[in-house]
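Bit of a strange request maybe. I'm writing a small parser for structure token strings and I need a real example to test against, not something I typed by hand. Could someone generate the tokens for this chain?
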Amino acid sequence: MTGLTVVVGYGDAALDVLRHLPLHFEHPEVAVLDPDSVALMGALANGARIVPGDGRDICALRQAGTQFAARVVVAVPDDVDGLVITMAVRSLNPAAIIVAAVREPANQELFTAVGADDVFVRFRSA
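Reply from user aminoacidic:
Good idea to test on real output. This should exercise your parser:
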């Protein structure tokens, strides 16, 4: 494992989670996996390595380096997709710390059950 943090889904939820996570490495590396080119350009501007792709695709997760990451942040817009991604990440890297941002508080236990170590509930504004 390295000082790599992989972020799957780069939007407001991911940025909120990253602001609250301590970086335990002298030279942390961040890789962002997202299908949206605008999100990727924002990540690139913030110094991240970017990987265009869908987090539900195991090949894209591998390309981002998930199997070597110390930490993976799952912050996609849909909780069902987030559950699938969390399970895939856990299968690729049993030792990684997985932090998930969820939209529905009722899904918090599901994320923990499928392998998330920390779950941030992101409340939607009306």
